[in-house]
Amino acid sequence: MVINFSTGKIIANQHELVVRIDGEARVTMQAQVDEVTFIGGANVITATGSGIQWSVRLDNENQLQALADAIGIAVKNV
Questions:
Q1: Is 1 helix (H, G, I), strand (E, B) or coil?
Q2: I need a labelling partner for 32 at 20 to 30 A (CA). Which of 9, 46, 64, 77 fits?
Q3: Beta strands 28-32 and 36-40: pairing type?
Q4: Residues 6+ apart with CB under 8 A from 57
Q5: Element (DSSP H or E) covering residue 3
């Protein structure tokens, strides 16, 4: 699954999530799905574990929910 958002795109499958940020730096962040948390309300994806720690904010809740549905991770509402 590919989700485009205002600053890049997210490529996800049942095993991993890759976030590509547009711009000159062309940042790519990758995480296994068991290291990922979806935070509703704030529309944030966080990845923590095995030496990684990053987060990215999506444009809206629909993008976060579509991603959660596609890879089978529940959204945690704060």
A1: coil
A2: 77
A3: unpaired
A4: 42, 43, 44
A5: strand 2-5
